[in-house]
Amino acid sequence: MRGVHAGVTCRVAEAESAEVRRFLAREWPLADRRLFGEDLDWTSRPVVVEALAGRELVGVALGEAVAGMARLHDVLVAEPRQGHGLGSRLVELFCARAARCFLRCPDTDRHRGFYERLGFVLVARLPRYYHGRDFLEYLREPLPGQGASGVR
């Protein structure tokens, strides 16, 4: 090795250490200023939307919001409650937490129809993404008539 790589060893670590967290806290603001010209908040905040029937949990939408983008990781409705609009309501409440909403889902007619009815636009196809199955990535900008928060 020559130049800046001389004496540098790369390895795969078992977990994120306190040293790695300190490194990121020190270096990311510098990299952000070079790219964006200002300090930005990249704090990831969990978003959890619950559907309750009395005290029983019957549906959830889970993910995170960071830098004006909500990333939906999971939406699930109990089987007997499916097909009555509850999943749509969970997704709407979830996406209202940020200016834009992004998700990844299996490439099925059911998933495509569900998210496209809610105003999501396909932005990428991911062949053989998880367990050899194709996945899709969708994005939704605020719908017409909505403010920057996405709330109607």
Overview of this structure, please?
The chain is an alpha+beta fold and 152 residues long. Helices cover 25% and strands 36% of the residues. The chain is built from 3 helices and 6 strands. Strands 1-2-3-4-6-5 form a 6-stranded mixed β-sheet, with helices on one face. The C terminus is likely disordered.
SS elements, strand count: 6
> What is the straight-line distance between the termini?
58 Å
The sequence of SSEs as H and E is HEEEHEHEE
Gyration radius, to the nearest Å?
20 Å
Strand order of the largest sheet: 1-2-3-4-6-5
> Count of helices?
3
Mean pLDDT level:
89
Which characteristics define this entry?
alpha+beta, 3 helices, single chain, 25% helix, six-stranded mixed β-sheet, 152 residues, 36% strand
SSE layout and pairings?
Blueprint: H1 18-36, E1 45-53, E2 56-66, E3 69-77, H2 86-95, E4 100-106, H3 109-117, E5 121-130, E6 133-140
Parallel strand pairs: 3-4
Antiparallel strand pairs: 1-2, 2-3, 4-6, 5-6
In short:
By secondary structure, the chain is of the alpha+beta class.
